[in-house]
Structures are given as structure tokens and as C-alpha cells.
Design goal:
single chain, 89 residues, alpha+beta, two-stranded antiparallel sheet, 2 strands, 19% strand, flat
Length: 89
């Protein structure tokens, strides 16, 4: 199933804010996972690595918008949802 989240043309400042908000939610998700009890060292390291990657990607995208000098920015985002089969042992 595909869920359309964003599809439109935005002023650069609005596009930047939308992207910041989306990335913020994902970073906060990983930060909560780090704070959760019973996390393995491996899962904590994975979450920390993912946070770093998200921050780096956001900085890059925002710099591209600023350097682009365009009046408008097209944003399109969707989520693909597939329900996994239960894990059996």
C-alpha cells in the first residue's frame, strides 16, 4: 500500500521547514529507542549511526535548496507499507 504524504510546490522556506519537521520526527524516534531500557549495544550504535546519517542528509538537502536559488521547490513524499509475515522459529 502506498500513502501519499506530500505532493506540491513550495517556497524554499516552506520546503525547508517541512523537511526539518520530517527529519526531526525520525531523529526523535531513534533518540527514544536509545533511551529505552533493554536495548542492546548493537541497537544503540545503529540508532546513533542513523541519527548521524539523517542529520548529514538534512544539512545536505537544505544547502542544495539554499544554493539552488529557485523561487519554488517541488516536494513529493510517500510511504510504502507492506505487512510482514509473523516471525516463526
Amino acid at each position: 500500500m502506498e500513502l501519499q504524504l506530500i505532493s506540491g510546490r513550495f517556497a524554499p522556506a516552506d520546503a525547508e521547514q517541512i523537511l526539518r519537521d520530517i527529519f526531526k520526527v525520525k531523529i526523535e524516534f531513534h533518540e527514544r529507542k536509545i533511551r529505552t531500557l533493554h536495548q542492546t549495544e548493537e541497537s544503540i550504535e545503529h540508532a546513533e549511526k542513523r541519527i548521524h546519517e539523517l542529520q548529514k542528509t538534512l544539512r545536505y538537502v537544505l544547502s542544495r535548496i539554499k544554493e539552488g536559488g529557485r523561487e519554488m521547490v517541488d516536494l513529493h513524499a510517500h510511504i510504502e507499507l507492506s505487512l510482514a509475515e509473523p516471525i516463526t522459529q
